[in-house]
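Sorry, explain these tokens?

___
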Amino acid sequence: MLVLTSGKLALLVLLGVPLAVTPLWLLGHRVRLLSRSSQDRIADIGAFVDEVLYGIRTVQAFCHEAIDHERYGQQVESAFQAAVQRTRVSALLTATVMLFTFVAVSIVLWVGGHDVLAGRISGGQLSSFVFYALLVASSVGALSEVAGDLLRAAGATERLLELLNSEPAISPPAAPVALPEPARGQVQLLDVTFRYPSRPESPALSQLSLTLEPGRKVALVGPSGAGKSTVLQLLLRFYDPEAGVIRFDGVDIREADPRELRRRMALVPQDPVIFGADAWENIRYGLAGVDDGSVRRAAEAAHAVEFLDRLPQGLNTFLGERGIRLSGGQRQRIAIARAILRDPAVLLLDEATSSLDAESERLVQEALEELMQGRTTLIIAHRLATVRKVDQILVMDQGRIVASGRHDELVAEYGLYARLAALQFRDSENPGQRTVVAET
């Protein structure tokens, strides 16, 4: 309609629209960066709040409320300032586009007015043309607002896109090798060397070799930082070694599907993770098709039914975020029931009883003894009293195995294990007996 009314004026409008849209290119990148910054500040607030609420008892015990209150205010103010700055630039973008658009309309009016005075077009034609031009101007202004929203959304989603586009370091091979059925539970580490990405200068494991035969119970002991937990991380293939090879039932785990590998293992950590759900869901975690009868039998084997049946709704009771409604021993028995239900070929125990009181430790130890029957078991322990009955003890120091044997053999060698044992045992009246003393 603009062209039919006046080709000359229509040409001016078409030249003015690109000029009006120019600020989208000049300020759009700035809006996108500020939107990303605003989302980062909001994420910082969420992380801070989650951390404080999770550790609220520690916060209160150390009278840290006032300091956290001040820090929270600072983070909220930082997020507010980032949002204000983003809004200002976004508003400037929209205002600039609309200003340029209506300046172009004004120029069209000025040129059209001269054409009316010269008799080249009529007043009615100019009025019609102005009406059409205002429709164009309002549409361009609306598009500028939409473009601003899209730019803000683009900045906000950059964080998500980075995650979606990132390639995982551990992924299934294109043609995974099938693990043997049924699983035997043999594990071999051959000359394994590994460095954590955050500490590339010092190896966590250095040319480590060990073999776990099916059905045997092996314990890893040693000082903190010796590399014991790193062995578990590599067995579960959370990382790949930089040198050496790890085999499960004769298959290099890098050639197997990580999911199939992990289905043959069960981990009972020192600090078990309990999800915000009931006991049924927590125990059958990862095994959605298991019936309630099997779940209850696993809970009975882990001595968990004793306290679960006393809860208000029994196993249907909500256990709280991170299992806040349970004691440490109760959370540990839930984790053991989860492992029993999984029926793994290899059981990984990472300090499973180190933080428990004597009564809870007795119940957990009974559940673990039943769980370890007939399974390959790798135990990480600082409390040497818990590993005196294992088939083999491997003593680690600085990422290497420095000694191996049974408890009495290692004590007789007067090496690192003997020094660790001396810190935890003292001779009783009977020189042949040793009694456990409290750890400091």
About this structure: Residues 65-118 form the longest helix (54 residues). The CA atoms of residues 208 and 237 lie 16 Å apart. The longest strand covers residues 187-194.
